[in-house]
Design goal:
Largest sheet: 7 strands, mixed
Strand content: 15-25%
Distance between the termini: 39 Å
Number of strands: 9
Strand order of the largest sheet: 5-4-1-6-8-7-9
Shape: globular
Number of helices: 6
Radius of gyration: 16 Å
């Protein structure tokens, strides 16, 4: 498999933040989206941003912008499909996705997803962590997705499917388990309180 392209998923409506673009909120003096870009760009062959609505608000980031082809804010899988269509046009075999509101995800996300897929004998993988009770939690917006399955995904979305793991489980997705840290590396900013917590995490990491 060639080095995958990266797609940052930012196509949601951010209702719990009162609307707007969560990725444009700032922690540590810079946008969350820029933090995501800085972590993902070195791991992939190219980078695109999945957003809906006017793309001009992201002009300053210099990224290719891809919008959902499925109407009605169909969830993360619609963003995955948009990314797969872009990758197909670029002649690539796969994409890795990351959420635009998750500034601390692992810097080895892509190699670990590729390793999990290879060891599992599959072409699709999701990131996961283990909680204090030992339960494994998958993070379905952080995944490795093969271009070869894009038409299958298009049909599934057209049929009303919206749950990521329902589709990935049907294709035998592997799990890339990331080690526990002093905070959840897949912590995402959903609420104003989360934004305060993200600042605290960043301050602790810098300290």
């Amino acid at each position: 498999m060639k080095q995958p392209l990266g797609v940052i998923l930012a196509g949601g409506q951010a209702r719990r933040m009162g609307g707007g673009d969560k990725g444009l909120l700032k922690i540590g003096g810079r946008t969350i989206l820029q933090s995501v870009i800085d972590r993902l760009a070195p791991q992939v062959a190219g980078l695109a941003l999945n957003v809906n609505g006017p793309a001009a608000r992201f002009d300053g980031f210099g990224l290719t912008v891809v919008a959902d082809s499925i109407e009605g804010f169909a969830g993360p899988l619609a963003g995955v499909l948009a990314g797969l269509d872009w990758a197909a046009n670029e002649g690539r075999d796969a994409i890795v996705t990351a959420a635009a509101d998750t500034p601390f995800f692992p810097e080895d996300l892509v190699p670990q997803l590729l390793l999990a897929a290879r060891q599992g004998g599959t072409s699709i993988a999701l990131a996961a962590t283990r909680d204090d009770a030992g339960k494994i939690w998958r993070h379905p917006t952080f995944g490795l997705w093969p271009v070869a399955l894009r038409e299958d995904l298009r049909r599934a979305l057209g049929g009303g499917l919206r749950k990521v793991v329902q589709w990935t489980d049907g294709h035998g997705a592997a799990t890339a388990l990331f080690p526990k840290q002093r905070f959840d590396p897949f912590f995402n900013v959903n609420t104003p309180a989360d934004l305060v917590e993200a600042e605290a995490i960043l301050s602790g990491a810098e300290g």
